[in-house]
# Entry
Amino acid sequence: EADIYQTPRYLVIGTGKKITLECSQTMGHDKMYWYQQDPGMELHLIHYSYGVNSTEKGDLSSESTVSRIRTEHFPLTLESARPSHTSQYLCASSEAYPPRNEQFFGPGTRLTVL
Amino acid sequence: QKEVEQNSGPLSVPEGAIASLNCTYSDRGSQSFFWYRQYSGKSPELIMSIYSNGDKEDGRFTAQLNKASQYVSLLIRDSQPSDSATYLCAVLISGGYNKLIFGAGTRLAVHP
# Structure
């Protein structure tokens, strides 16, 4: 079944730790995205990718980095987690060409940095 | 002016009523418009997409688009308590890398 998977779903970690949030999709989509969303607040695009070896920063400045070595996989890494990184991180994917740029979201990772 | 604007609500409607959610956008060249539903603590779920002026119906949902007025709306007929959620309007802006801009969302509360 075509879907988007994110792991872990919940993560509580101490300051200074390196973390990687995983995102995989079986939708066959070329485009993938990472959004950050605080409770009750707007979605903010932090990274996106058009395809393998293509990554760009989004609108919201983020200390995280991403990689796209395989079409289906788009992990996000924080080298040194801080309490300000506490948020929900949402991965999404879409077809490559408009107008059908419908984005589909994974279940999200709720990150808490102590 | 924000690129995509929505009334934050809450919009409170009785069960069985029609809920009307509105969204305006600033990019005149936009061609693709989407409505997402987001339950508290969950990820957004795509419920409607619309690309042409007029109405598009899917079950109890109707999306309405007026490009001249830069306005898109979502009607929910026979509202149910399970429809209580935040509804996000998203607009695909023209040019560049086809970025999807999300509104801040309208919180809908359907009371029995």
About this structure: The CA atoms of residues 37 and 43 of chain A lie 5 Å apart. The mean pLDDT of chain A is 92.
